[in-house]
Amino acid sequence: MSATAAIRAAALVTMTALAAACQPAAEDRPVPAGESTAAPAPYATAASAPSATASPSRVTAANTAAVCAAVDKLIIAKSREIAADSAAATRRQLTPEQINAQVKADLADLADGVRGQAARAEDPEIRALVGDAAERIDAGARSSTPVRWLGSTFVEIPQRLARECRA
User: Fold this and answer.
1) Sequence-distant contacts of 71-77: CB under 8 A, at least 24 apart
2) Contact residues for 22 (Cβ-Cβ < 8 A; gap 6+)
3) Is 34 left (phi over 0), alpha (psi -120 to 50) or beta?
4) Digitized pLDDT (tens) for each residue of the chain, 167 residues in all
């Protein structure tokens, strides 16, 4: 597979994964007033009791939503940029080394932006989650084959954030 084909494939995989990962899950969608969020049970159970869980403060929840949304936007914007760069690299006939350098720079820039969002997070769990995502992206920037890394490892990062980075 040529470097150009590899970049196109990685860009397509990345954009597809991001589009899927950034969509809210059914349990994340707003529920109209008066409707229950629980799935209807075929029968009632007497043993069901609500569990007591501590809910985050409004400040932390609002900050978490803002941080998660900002990280989503950063990842989507940089993924679009990488895809556009890969198309431009094809037209300019860049060498694989030039393409790798470009992707590494894009990933390093993304890691810096994600790290900045981690620093904003008030919730320590969200700060750790987003910080870990930044470290993983940094690993891609240091990879000897960042294009391959995009198609294999990068696509997992937005999926994990979509699952775990919610208020």
Assistant:
1) 71/114, 71/117, 71/130, 71/133, 71/161, 71/165, 72/22, 72/158, 72/161, 72/162, 74/110, 74/113, 74/114, 74/117, 75/18, 75/22, 75/110, 75/114, 75/157, 75/158, 75/161, 76/18, 76/22
2) 72, 75, 76, 158, 162
3) left
4) 455 555 554 554 454 444 444 444 434 444 444 444 444 333 333 333 344 444 444 455 568 899 999 999 999 999 999 999 888 888 888 888 898 999 999 999 999 999 999 999 999 999 999 999 999 999 999 999 998 999 889 999 999 999 998 75
Q: State the Cα–Cα distance between residues 95 and 4, nearest whole angstrom.
A: 9
Neighbours of 141 (CB within 10 A): 18
Q: What are 99's two structure tokens?
A: 């393409």
Q: What is the DSSP string of 36-103?
A: -SSPPPSS--TT--PPP-PPPPHHHHHHHHHHHHHHHHHHHHHHHHHHHHHHHHHHHT--HHHHHHHH
State how far the Cα of 125 lies from the Cα of 147, in Å rounded to an integer: 30
